């Protein structure tokens, strides 16, 4: 069993949590004793932090819509198609027609990359997230 | 967070979480803290154990309100008259911090003039709270050396949310309760990394670190770093995008880890917009309601499968570390974005998330000293952290406000845009419950959390329940001018007669169908918390 110190994702308190990993599965969560916020204590959400990670409903393959239905596809096809459509609509709408939503659940690094992608590649400032909700 | 930014120059929590337990008076407004921020509620209750006084402003008798010395159970949407009344009392009782106002703030006289025009009895009547209780609260707050204000969604999701926040800031500045440790104004951010998403510039008008896109100097700095020309016009907000409509200007969307099909206040409009897009790509860990409408869905890695940082509500930037490799064929959002950029002819290749953070530290001054190696070696750092030798910042606005002088913005009452009437006699209040998180994309997939609470309840007072002849557990139909849903009745003393309360976690009962399509003109913030409804047996 391996304990990995990380940060809880369920609220803005940001408790320090150890995820317990065994054979490639996360099997438990425990509080960090010295962390300034958690101080050896988590709330009920934190204690069950690991439960959604291996849920059978997790998406594990890219999906693409064919004949109206979402079907599994390869990463290459999904990425190629997305890039082609984004480029087409960006160019046809004079950089005005694409909107991007970033996520308050993703990391800072990912938020940074997505806003850079939106501004530098899609050439628009149409980016926001659900902070207001 | 427009309100606090206008007043102080920064929209973040001024204190640290642990300072709250040292406060002498804690004023909590519109925050269901025990449910939304359990650790902060713990600090509050610890403080109360140690003799601190707790003032709770909330239309409902929340768990926290039960521990309060004073519970100001105002009518929903009447925060401003309440706060103005408190300030008038502070003025009359001469509890104002003149020195602080003189040295550190501006525009005070405009506020004072407005307060002198206020009729206290009338304000009390508007709020539905006895004047004597408001007196006690005002004295308590103003007389303590260390008073802290915490607020949450309740206050920012009204039509007058921005002004509510400014009002709280006025109260704090008038009594000199900012700029020191253990006293300040603290917005409690809901989702785990809302603060970080804002800091990183996932906003239509600013680059990372709140540098406006309209400012030529900042734009040139980013153009030089990214080696590309950048647009200067502010972009569309979330609402402008998702409410763009059938023939609206937005033709395609890329959505990372969000589910506007559940979290947006006016679902029918969002659905119309998303269904009519020429192209929609969604990256998420589950097939959410939004992902179901997409043309392409990318399976994203969860937080347990990647390296990076989150910024908590006290501005603490902390490491996220992988416990396992991405499951199945999942990839991290960073990988997905880089792969797309490459296909669009722009290289965004980084060796690791640490290298992305290096770039952030170079371009975002408040993260200037936040490289991963430093964050690894401690419990994270609180921004602003200007350079590698900076220890981070426990509380904001020491010596001077971020914007220079604290700016008083006098605010006056604006009634909610929809009040109960003959046809829709109940006031519906919405909020969140402890076990589920935002729209429940993750928490509802956790079997333990789902077992504890898996249906959407409508809290209703005994008096109203008797009149409708409803018992606990019966199904009720709730109708507004915009739609109807079915909910299970829960008779509760937490709500006053005439009000009903529910939450927005459940796909089976999207409360947002009922809500109003008006929003705070300043923060572009949807009016979530109240609307008029009819409650009947189906
Ligand atoms: S353990 Fe609870 S209080 Fe701590 S961050 Fe997670 S959800 Fe928030």
Structure explained in plain terms:
The complex is a heterodimer of chains A (133) and B (538). Chain A is of the alpha+beta class and 133 residues long. Chain A has helices at residues 44-47, 75-92, 108-121, and strands at residues 2-7, 16-22, 25-31, 63-66, 69-72, 98-101, 127-128. Chain A has a three-stranded antiparallel sheet, with no helix packed on it. In chain A, strands 4-5 form a two-stranded antiparallel sheet. The model of chain A has no long low-confidence stretch (mean pLDDT 90). In chain B, the strands form seven sheets. In chain B, strands 16-20-17-19-18-23 form a six-stranded mixed beta barrel. A five-stranded parallel sheet of chain B has the order 3-2-1-5-6. Chain B has a three-stranded parallel sheet with strand order 9-10-11, with no helix packed on it. The longest helix of chain B is centred in the first third of the chain and has 14 residues, at 79-92. In chain B, helix 5 (79-92) runs antiparallel to helix 8, helix 5 packs across helix 9 and helix 5 (79-92) packs parallel to helix 11. Chains A and B meet through strand 1, strand 2, strand 4, helix 2 and strand 6 of A and helix 3, helix 12, helix 14, strand 9 and strand 10 of B. Strand 6 (98-101) of chain A pairs parallel with strand 9 of chain B, so a sheet runs across the interface. Iron/sulfur cluster (SF4) is lined by residues 8, 10-11, 13-15, 42-43, 45-46 of chain A.
Describe the protein's topology.
The complex is a heterodimer of chains A (133) and B (538).
Chain A: E1 2-7, E2 16-22, E3 25-31, H1 44-47, E4 63-66, E5 69-72, H2 75-92, E6 98-101, H3 108-121, E7 127-128
Parallel strand pairs in A: 6-7
Antiparallel strand pairs in A: 1-2, 2-3, 4-5
Chain B: H1 2-8, E1 25-29, H2 33-36, H3 38-49, E2 53-57, H4 63-66, E3 70-72, H5 79-92, H6 98-104, E4 105-106, H7 108-117, H8 120-127, H9 131-143, E5 147-151, H10 153-156, H11 161-174, E6 184-187, H12 194-199, E7 206-207, E8 211-212, H13 216-226, H14 238-242, E9 252-256, H15 260-263, H16 267-275, E10 279-284, E11 296-299, E12 308-311, E13 316-320, H17 333-343, H18 353-363, H19 372-376, E14 381-382, E15 406-407, E16 426-431, H20 447-452, E17 457-460, H21 462-468, E18 475-479, E19 484-491, E20 499-503, E21 519-520, E22 525-526, E23 530-536
Parallel strand pairs in B: 1-2, 1-5, 2-3, 4-15, 5-6, 9-10, 10-11, 16-20, 17-19
Antiparallel strand pairs in B: 7-8, 12-13, 13-14, 16-23, 17-20, 18-19, 18-23, 21-22
The complex binds iron/sulfur cluster.
């Amino acid at each position: 069993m391996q304990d990995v110190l990380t940060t809880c994702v369920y609220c803005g308190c940001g408790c320090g949590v150890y995820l317990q990993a065994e054979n490639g599965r996360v099997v438990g969560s425990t509080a960090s004793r010295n962390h300034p916020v958690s101080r050896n204590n988590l709330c009920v959400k934190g204690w069950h932090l690991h439960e959604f990670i291996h849920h059978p409903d997790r998406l594990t393959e890219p999906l693409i819509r064919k004949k109206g239905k979402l079907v599994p596809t390869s990463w290459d096809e999904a990425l190629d198609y997305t890039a082609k459509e984004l480029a087409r609509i960006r160019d046809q709408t004079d950089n005005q027609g694409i909107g991007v939503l970033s996520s308050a659940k993703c990391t800072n690094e990912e938020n940074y990359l997505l806003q850079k992608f939106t501004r530098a590649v899609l050439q628009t400032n149409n980016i926001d997230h659900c902070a207001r909700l | 967070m427009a309100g606090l930014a206008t007043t102080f120059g920064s929209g973040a929590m001024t204190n640290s979480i642990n300072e709250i337990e040292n406060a002498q008076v804690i004023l909590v407004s519109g925050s269901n803290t025990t449910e939304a921020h359990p650790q902060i509620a713990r600090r509050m209750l610890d403080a109360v154990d140690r003799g601190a006084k707790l003032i709770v402003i909330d239309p409902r008798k929340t768990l926290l309100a039960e521990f309060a010395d004073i519970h100001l159970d105002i009518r929903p949407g009447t925060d401003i008259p309440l706060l103005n009344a408190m300030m008038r009392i502070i003025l009359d009782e001469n509890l104002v911090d003149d020195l602080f106002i003189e040295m550190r703030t501006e525009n005070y006289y405009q506020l004072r003039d407005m307060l002198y025009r206020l009729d206290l009895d009338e304000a009390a009547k508007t709020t539905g709270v006895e004047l004597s209780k408001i007196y006690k609260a005002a004295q308590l707050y103003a007389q303590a050396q260390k008073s802290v204000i915490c607020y949450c969604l309740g206050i920012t999701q009204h039509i007058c949310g921005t002004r509510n926040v400014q009002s709280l800031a006025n109260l704090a500045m008038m009594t000199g309760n900012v700029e020191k440790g253990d006293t300040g104004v603290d917005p409690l951010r809901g989702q785990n990394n809302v603060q970080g998403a804002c800091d990183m510039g996932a906003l239509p008008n600013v680059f990372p670190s709140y540098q406006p896109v309209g400012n030529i100097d900042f734009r040139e700095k980013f153009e030089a770093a990214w080696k590309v020309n950048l647009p200067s016009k502010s972009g569309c907000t979330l609402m402008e995008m998702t409410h763009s409509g059938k023939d609206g200007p937005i033709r395609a969307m890329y959505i990372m880890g969000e589910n506007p099909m559940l979290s947006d206040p006016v679902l029918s409009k969002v659905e119309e917009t998303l269904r009519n897009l020429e192209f929609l790509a969604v990256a998420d860990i589950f097939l959410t309601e939004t992902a179901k409408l997409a043309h392409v869905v990318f399976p994203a890695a969860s937080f347990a499968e990647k390296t990076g940082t989150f910024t908590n509500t006290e501005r603490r930037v902390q490491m996220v570390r992988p416990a396992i490799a991405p499951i199945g064929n999942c990839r991290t959002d960073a990988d997905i974005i880089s792969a797309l950029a490459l296909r669009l002819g722009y290289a965004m290749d980084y060796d690791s998330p640490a290298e992305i953070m290096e770039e952030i530290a170079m371009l975002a001054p408040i993260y200037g000293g936040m490289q991963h190696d430093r964050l690894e070696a401690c419990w994270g750092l609180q921004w602003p952290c200007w350079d590698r030798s900076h220890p981070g910042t426990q509380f904001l606005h020491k010596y001077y406000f971020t914007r220079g002088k604290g700016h008083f913005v006098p605010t006056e009452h604006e009634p909610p845009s929809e009040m109960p009437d003959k046809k829709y006699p109940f006031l519906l209040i919405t909020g969140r419950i402890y076990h589920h998180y935002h729209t429940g994309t993750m928490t509802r997939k956790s079997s333990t959390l789902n077992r504890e609470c898996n249906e959407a309840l409508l809290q209703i007072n005994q008096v109203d329940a008797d009149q409708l002849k409803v018992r606990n557990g019966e199904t009720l139909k709730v109708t507004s001018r915009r739609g109807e849903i079915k909910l299970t009745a829960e008779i509760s003393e937490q709500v006053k007669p005439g009000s009903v309360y529910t939450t927005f976690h459940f796909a089976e009962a999207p409360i947002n169908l009922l809500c109003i399509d008006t929003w705070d003109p300043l923060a572009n913030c949807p009016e979530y918390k109240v609307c008029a409804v009819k409650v009947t047996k189906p």
